[in-house]
Design a protein that fits this description.
- Chain B: One of its GO terms (molecular function) is flavin adenine dinucleotide binding.
- Chain B: The electron transfer flavoprotein serves as a specific electron acceptor for other dehydrogenases. It transfers the electrons to the main respiratory chain via ETF-ubiquinone oxidoreductase (ETF dehydrogenase).
- The complex is a heterodimer of chains A (about 250) and B (about 300).
- Chain A is α/β, with parallel strands linked by helices.
- Chain A contains six helices and 13 strands.
- Chain A has a single domain, classed as Rossmann fold (3-Layer(aba) Sandwich), CATH 3.40.50.
- Helix content of chain B is about 25%, strand content about 30%.
- The termini of chain B are far apart.
- The model of chain B has no long low-confidence stretch (mean pLDDT about 95).
- The chains are: A alpha/beta (about 250), B alpha/beta (about 300).
- At the A-B interface, α3, α4, β7, β8 and β9 of A face α3, α4, β5, β7 and β8 of B.
- β9 of chain A pairs antiparallel with β11 of chain B.
Chain lengths: ~250, ~300
């Protein structure tokens, strides 16, 4: 079985994003970029399945600018076998990403696609579900545990009230939640080796996908700023404040 | 505009999150509901009583019992032939199903909306709530998930919707429900609690979390939340997590104890009306958003606070 892992290059999760003064977006110039944290978990899970002898190949895919190559090299350094970069300087919405991934899915015929549950930049949480719909395959979203058994995969999902377990017929689409695993660090020798691994560069047109956005962003603004608060000196003062709020 | 709202339910009763989605839908036009379940007539009747509801489409079939996306999405997509917008609460159920519906309709979903600015214009948070984007859809139909804390809840009583049975394709045959483990709690549900007491990594372990956080929460009749660090360390189950990747809450009062206030945590609670922080590090980022802060060792002050309230 082959596992396909889509990864996205996003602003590093430790960076506090700054909104541009003209309201056109978030300033990404000279900002540290990294692999989306949920995607690191997806790569890790794919590698663990391969290491358990349940998959032969892990293919990483990214859709984005030339620099997304770095993100793919990170996936290769972690242990992915090869990579595909669908290069475009346009911003590609989840629906178009899902369409490109569908074309790659059809070409590669993976048994499993593992994606992150959401990207920490647009916070959409859509791509995996959309890919599942377009390919007509089952989806195991917000996975906390993934167990391959023969022709199916059992996925434990994080839901609002606790956990839910579903069984999906392969090929299936899985999206990762934070607690699925602890991603490994790429070692220096592996980073060096990753430079030799195959990386194909394609364009959205190669897959016949129109990436024109369906949603127009007319403005991006700072969220409302909270009023500065007060610090209290001791518990008695805090008790008085809480009582004044009328909750105790 | 005719809207179709996905009702979140357990086949017997309607979950609260649906009510906020109904409020959002009513701003767009006529409100129809979709109750997909099995033996779900009680949930359908409850749905019909929601204020402002017109028609309630009920699909009662064993295939819909656990609202698996593979089975529910084609049903919703079929009903969308007669509707202009599909709305779902931005809960794990809504987030699981709605994008599948959107892709079947070949439209982009608008996730987690905060407000409705026009017939096709909405605001939504991006970058963990550090920016608010205004987006305008050019799609013929809308698919939207609604952030519960951003819209008032429609009244659960007083409506007089008409219940109409519908049938869909049923079981797609590619997925099945195996089981679930729901966390049992006597406390108010996190996303609807008026007061939340939340603990972080500083609580040290599960027993300490229990010992310091729970009595204070009980005294205030509060829901209990946690930071990711506390969940990862196993102090509490993962459905307690508040943040970008956990639950988004906006209670009247949020009390953060031993939580530093990382960007990802703030994304889940910074719309709370009043934020109270107790932390021994006076430079902790949580104090930048807290209305009331106390710089102190939680192990000293929390028991004292609990006693004096």
């Amino acid at each position: 079985m082959k596992i396909l892992v889509p990864v996205k290059r996003v602003i590093d999760y430790n960076v506090k994003p700054r909104v541009k003064a003209d309201g056109t977006g978030v300033d990404l110039a000279n900002v540290k970029m990294s692999m989306n944290p949920f995607d690191e978990i997806a790569v890790e899970e794919a590698l663990r399945i391969k290491e358990a002898g349940k998959a032969e190949e892990v293919v990483a895919v990214s859709i984005g600018p030339a620099k997304a190559q770095e993100t793919l090299r990170t996936a290769l350094a972690m242990g992915a076998d090869r990579a595909i970069l669908v290069q475009t300087d346009d911003e590609v919405e989840p629906l178009a990403v899902a369409k490109i991934l569908k074309a790659i899915y059809e070409a590669e015929q993976p048994g499993l696609v593992i994606l992150g549950k959401q990207a920490i930049d647009d916070d959409s949480n859509q791509t995996g579900q959309m890919l599942a719909a377009l390919t007509g395959r089952p989806q195991g979203t917000f996975a906390n545990d993934v167990e391959i058994d023969g022709e199916s995969v059992t996925v434990k999902r994080e839901i609002d009230g606790g956990l839910e377990t579903v069984k999906l017929t392969l090929p299936a689409i899985v999206t990762t939640d934070l607690r699925l695993n602890e991603p490994r660090y790429a070692s220096l020798p592996n980073i060096m080796k990753a430079k030799q691994k195959p990386l194909d560069t394609k364009s959205p047109a190669d897959y016949g996908v129109d990436t024109a956005p369906r949603l127009k962003t007319t403005n991006v603004s700072e969220p409302p700023v909270r009023q500065a608060g007060v610090k209290v000196a001791d518990v008695d003062e805090l008790v008085a404040k809480i009582k004044a709020l009328g909750i105790a | 505009m005719k809207t179709l709202v996905l009702v979140e339910h357990d086949n017997a009763s309607v979950k609260d999150a649906t009510l906020s989605a109904v409020t959002a839908a009513a701003k767009l036009g006529e409100v129809h509901l979709l109750v997909a379940g099995s033996g779900c007539s009680a949930a359908a009747e409850a749905a019909a009583k929601i204020e402002g509801v017109g028609k309630v489409h009920v699909a009662d079939d064993p295939a819909y019992e656990h609202q698996l996306a593979e089975n529910v999405a084609p049903l919703a997509a079929e009903l969308m032939k007669d509707h202009d917008a599909f709305l779902a609460p931005a809960t794990t159920t809504g987030k699981n199903i709605a994008p599948r519906v959107a892709a079947l309709l070949d439209v982009m979903q608008i996730s987690d909306i905060l407000s409705i600015e026009g017939e096709k214009t909405f605001t939504r948070p991006i970058y963990a709530g550090n920016a608010i984007a205004t987006v305008e859809s050019s799609d013929p139909k809308l698919v939207i998930t609604v952030r519960g804390t951003a819209f008032d809840k429609a009244g659960a009583e007083g409506g007089s919707g008409t219940v109409e049975a519908v049938s869909g394709a049923g079981d797609a045959g590619i997925s099945s429900f195996v089981g679930q483990e729901l966390a049992k709690s006597e406390r108010p549900e996190l996303t609807s609690a008026k007061v939340i007491v939340s603990g972080g990594r500083a609580l040290k372990d599960a027993a300490t979390f229990e010992e310091y956080i729970m009595p204070l929460a009980d005294k205030l009749g509060a829901g209990v939340g946690a930071s990711r660090a506390a969940v990862d360390a196993g102090y509490v189950p993962n459905d307690y997590q508040v943040g970008q990747t956990g639950k988004i809450v906006a209670p009247e009062v949020y009390i953060a104890i031993g939580i530093s206030g990382a960007i990802q945590h703030l994304a889940g609670m910074k719309d709370s009306k009043t934020i109270i922080a107790i932390n021994k590090d006076e430079d902790a980022p949580i104090f930048q958003v807290a209305d009331i802060g106390l710089v102190a060792d939680l192990f000293k002050v929390v028991p004292e606070l609990t006693e004096k309230l």
